[in-house]
Design goal:
The protein has about 150 residues and is mostly helical. It contains 6 helices and no strands. The chain is globular, with a radius of gyration of 15 Å.
């Protein structure tokens, strides 16, 4: 990850709207496709996982902004997902859907006038987010392996 700073506008947006993003991702991306059957069979997982989404977004924003992150938290995330019936392939799909949802959310909030960041600042944040995901995916996938 580079040494440039993440836009304060993006940080402020997530400080105010982290739950809105979590719901946006969960409702429009996460619950689609193969996840739908697991979530239909285990509706209690919806309530349990939403708080984990918020924690993941918060940790990721902190890390992308230059802070530290807990490898153990991401390992435990993978382990919990595996114990709830998700596969490693689904973890990779969830990563992709998360990144897609993040981009869509930022563009949507900018179009609505609630995000004053430039397109370049949004693109930089998304690049850094993807680089961060490259770092944490091995911990998540290890959690999957050890849960089986």
């Amino acid at each position: 990850m580079r040494d440039e700073l993440i836009s304060n506008e993006i940080i402020r947006l997530f400080a105010k709207e982290i739950f809105r993003f979590a719901d946006f991702w969960f409702d429009h991306y996460y619950t689609q496709g193969i996840n739908a059957s697991i979530l239909k069979a285990h509706p209690e997982y919806v309530n349990n996982y939403r708080s984990r989404i918020v924690m993941t977004v918060t940790n990721g924003l902190h890390a992308v902004s230059g802070g530290s992150y807990s490898q153990l938290d991401y390992y435990n995330l993978g382990k919990a997902e595996a114990q709830n019936g998700f596969s490693e392939a689904e973890a990779l799909e969830n990563r992709e859907s998360f990144e897609t949802a993040m981009e869509a959310f930022l563009i949507k909030r900018k179009a609505e006038g609630d995000l004053k960041a430039s397109n370049q600042e949004i693109a930089y944040y998304l690049e850094e987010l993807k680089a961060f995901h490259d770092q944490i995916m091995p911990f998540i996938l290890q959690g999957y392996k050890n849960a089986q």
